[in-house]
Amino acid sequence: MERIQEELKRDRETIIPPTEKWLTRTAPNQNGWVTESHPSYGTIGVHRVSGDSSLFQSDVKHMHYICLEIHEANKVIDGTHEFLHNGNTLCTVEMSEAQFSQMITQPNMGSGTPCTIHYSAGDKGQPWLHPKFGTRPEPPDPESFNIKYDKETAYRAKIITDNLVSLQKTLGDLVSGLTKPNKGTLKELLAAVESARMQIEQNIPYVQKCAAEELEKKVGAAVADAPVLALEAPASVVGAEVPRLTSGTPEWAAANGDPGLADTSEEGDQ
């Protein structure tokens, strides 16, 4: 009976090894610190970084954006104190501030929030990796909403035009006598007219609906990113040159609501 129990225990450990099997601790170093490691230990960090980057599903290029990093981690024990030390980077993703806000405030929505994968530890050997840094390529620059709208409108307009051309040919053949106006021909003509009408009724409202939905998304993202984009925008975009004011001057006092210094300056000028 004991032998059977030992075999069952050994089988369970083979299938599901106990967590203690993978837990390792180093001997204390010269400072008395012990480093504890386990395959499940990790850290996740959120950073606001700078750079001129295109981000997946974002309609503008960003000078500032959010970066999330996941690392393997070790636990360093110093008596009763514990702190974490990052190991290998497992994954790095980038998001606009609007996307980061959406991820936090709108969980369980569809497939999730778009993000830009910057680095993944499993990418080794891929042909598109950066030869020096091992990072993934940047997404293509965002396409203008006007260009996308023009493409979709042109595509839908071509469908309508093709149907009208077919209808015109059928009518032309009837008028020129190439086709005799029998019952079958008239049915084909009626079907062509009905098809052209349906294309006009369906395609134009569809383009309008898609454009309205897309515009609503862009407005929402723009509102979320507006403070960031305003800070990033050059003075020429805002519409006027922004002067740099020196602290303690009358101009600085007027701009910062300190009438005392401004009044003193006026009295001195008199």
Please count the helical segments. Answer: 7
Strand segment count: 5
Mean of pLDDT: 77
Morphology = elongated
Measured by DSSP, the beta-strand proportion falls in 15-25%
pLDDT < 50 runs, ≥5 residues: 232-247, 260-270
Helix-strand sequence:
HEEEEHEHHHHH
Widest sheet: strand order?
1-2-3-4-5
Query: Helicity level, as a percent range?
Result: 40-55%
The helix-and-strand class reads alpha+beta
Largest sheet: 5 strands, antiparallel
Overall number of structural domains:
2
Give Rg in angstroms. 33 Å
Distance between the termini: 108 Å
What does this structure look like?
Strand 1 (24-25) and strand 2 (34-53) form a beta hairpin. The chain has 2 domains: 16-123, no CATH class; 145-230. The protein has helices at residues 2-15, 97-105, 145-176, 183-232, 235-238, 250-255, 259-269; strands at residues 24-25, 34-53, 62-78, 81-95, 116-120. The protein has 270 residues and is α+β, with helices and mostly antiparallel strands.
What is shown here, in short?
The protein has 270 residues and is of the alpha+beta class. It contains seven helices and five strands; from the N terminus they run H-E-E-E-E-H-E-H-H-H-H-H.
Architecture blueprint of SSEs:
Layout lengths: L1 H14 L8 E2 L8 E20 L8 E17 L2 E15 L1 H9 L10 E5 L24 H32 L6 H50 L2 H4 L11 H6 L3 H11 L1
Antiparallel strand pairs: 1-2, 2-3, 3-4, 4-5
Helix pairs in contact: 2-4, 3-4
